[in-house]
Amino acid sequence: MKLLLKWLLSAVALLCVAYIYSGVEVHSFTSALIAAAVIGLLNTIVRPVLIVLTLPVTLVTLGLFLFVINALMFWAAGSLLGNGFQVHGFGAALLGSLIYSVLSMLIESAVSSLLLQK
User: Fold this and answer.
1) What are the transmembrane regions (predicted)?
2) Which residues span the domain enclosing 23?
Protein backbone atom coordinates (compact mmCIF):
# COMPACT_ATOMS: atom_id res chain seq x y z
CA MET A 1 0.00 0.00 0.00
CA LYS A 2 2.83 2.37 0.90
CA LEU A 3 4.61 1.71 -2.41
CA LEU A 4 1.45 2.35 -4.42
CA LEU A 5 0.76 5.59 -2.56
CA LYS A 6 4.34 6.81 -3.06
CA TRP A 7 4.17 5.91 -6.76
CA LEU A 8 0.93 7.87 -7.27
CA LEU A 9 2.24 10.86 -5.33
CA SER A 10 5.51 10.75 -7.26
CA ALA A 11 3.52 10.96 -10.48
CA VAL A 12 1.69 13.99 -9.07
CA ALA A 13 5.08 15.47 -8.14
CA LEU A 14 6.22 15.06 -11.76
CA LEU A 15 3.10 16.87 -12.92
CA CYS A 16 3.95 19.65 -10.43
CA VAL A 17 7.51 19.87 -11.78
CA ALA A 18 6.14 20.23 -15.30
CA TYR A 19 3.71 22.91 -14.10
CA ILE A 20 6.39 24.86 -12.20
CA TYR A 21 9.20 24.58 -14.74
CA SER A 22 8.78 24.70 -18.52
CA GLY A 23 11.96 22.68 -19.24
CA VAL A 24 10.13 19.50 -18.23
CA GLU A 25 7.01 18.34 -20.09
CA VAL A 26 4.55 15.68 -18.95
CA HIS A 27 1.65 15.12 -21.32
CA SER A 28 -0.73 13.10 -19.15
CA PHE A 29 -1.13 11.47 -15.77
CA THR A 30 -0.45 8.09 -17.38
CA SER A 31 2.83 9.43 -18.73
CA ALA A 32 3.63 10.74 -15.25
CA LEU A 33 2.95 7.30 -13.74
CA ILE A 34 5.24 5.61 -16.26
CA ALA A 35 7.94 8.28 -15.80
CA ALA A 36 7.77 7.93 -12.01
CA ALA A 37 8.24 4.17 -12.34
CA VAL A 38 11.18 4.58 -14.74
CA ILE A 39 12.85 7.18 -12.52
CA GLY A 40 12.38 4.87 -9.55
CA LEU A 41 13.92 1.94 -11.43
CA LEU A 42 16.85 4.05 -12.64
CA ASN A 43 17.45 5.33 -9.12
CA THR A 44 17.33 1.77 -7.77
CA ILE A 45 19.52 0.05 -10.36
CA VAL A 46 21.78 2.55 -12.17
CA ARG A 47 22.30 5.30 -9.59
CA PRO A 48 24.20 3.15 -7.02
CA VAL A 49 26.60 1.99 -9.75
CA LEU A 50 27.23 5.57 -10.85
CA ILE A 51 27.79 6.68 -7.26
CA VAL A 52 30.44 4.01 -6.76
CA LEU A 53 32.13 4.76 -10.08
CA THR A 54 32.23 8.51 -9.44
CA LEU A 55 33.17 8.33 -5.76
CA PRO A 56 36.49 10.18 -6.18
CA VAL A 57 34.80 13.06 -8.00
CA THR A 58 32.02 13.11 -5.41
CA LEU A 59 34.53 13.33 -2.58
CA VAL A 60 36.52 16.12 -4.27
CA THR A 61 33.34 18.15 -4.85
CA LEU A 62 32.13 17.46 -1.30
CA GLY A 63 29.08 15.61 -2.54
CA LEU A 64 27.91 18.21 -5.05
CA PHE A 65 28.47 15.78 -7.92
CA LEU A 66 25.46 13.82 -6.62
CA PHE A 67 23.31 16.61 -8.08
CA VAL A 68 24.79 15.80 -11.48
CA ILE A 69 24.03 12.10 -11.02
CA ASN A 70 20.42 12.92 -10.06
CA ALA A 71 20.11 15.13 -13.13
CA LEU A 72 21.50 12.35 -15.34
CA MET A 73 18.90 9.91 -13.98
CA PHE A 74 16.12 12.44 -14.64
CA TRP A 75 17.45 13.17 -18.13
CA ALA A 76 17.83 9.45 -18.90
CA ALA A 77 14.20 8.85 -17.96
CA GLY A 78 13.16 11.62 -20.32
CA SER A 79 15.28 10.12 -23.09
CA LEU A 80 13.89 6.63 -22.58
CA LEU A 81 10.24 7.67 -22.55
CA GLY A 82 10.21 10.07 -25.48
CA ASN A 83 6.99 11.97 -26.12
CA GLY A 84 5.09 11.42 -22.86
CA PHE A 85 7.83 12.77 -20.59
CA GLN A 86 10.42 15.16 -22.03
CA VAL A 87 13.36 16.93 -20.44
CA HIS A 88 14.86 19.69 -22.58
CA GLY A 89 18.61 19.52 -21.94
CA PHE A 90 20.92 18.97 -19.01
CA GLY A 91 20.11 22.30 -17.36
CA ALA A 92 16.42 21.44 -17.39
CA ALA A 93 17.26 18.01 -15.96
CA LEU A 94 19.29 19.59 -13.16
CA LEU A 95 16.60 22.05 -12.14
CA GLY A 96 13.78 19.54 -12.69
CA SER A 97 15.55 16.91 -10.59
CA LEU A 98 16.11 19.42 -7.78
CA ILE A 99 12.41 20.33 -7.71
CA TYR A 100 11.44 16.66 -7.95
CA SER A 101 13.82 15.77 -5.11
CA VAL A 102 12.32 18.40 -2.82
CA LEU A 103 8.80 17.21 -3.63
CA SER A 104 9.87 13.58 -3.11
CA MET A 105 11.25 14.42 0.34
CA LEU A 106 7.93 16.05 1.23
CA ILE A 107 6.05 12.99 -0.06
CA GLU A 108 8.26 10.61 1.94
CA SER A 109 7.75 12.69 5.08
CA ALA A 110 3.98 12.86 4.59
CA VAL A 111 3.59 9.15 3.84
CA SER A 112 5.78 8.18 6.81
CA SER A 113 3.86 10.39 9.23
CA LEU A 114 0.53 9.19 7.80
CA LEU A 115 1.46 5.55 8.29
CA LEU A 116 2.80 6.20 11.80
CA GLN A 117 -0.58 7.61 12.85
CA LYS A 118 -2.33 4.34 11.99
Assistant:
1) 28-46, 53-77, 89-116
2) 2-117
First to last CA, the chain: 13
CA 30 to each of CA 33, 45, 52, 95: distance values in angstroms, whole numbers, following the listed order: 5, 23, 33, 23
Q: How far apart are CA 55 and CA 76, in angstroms?
A: 20
Give the integer Cα–Cα distance in Å for 114 and 108.
Answer: 10
Indicate the number of domains in the chain: 1
Which residues are CB-neighbours of 91 under 8 A, at least 6 positions away?
23
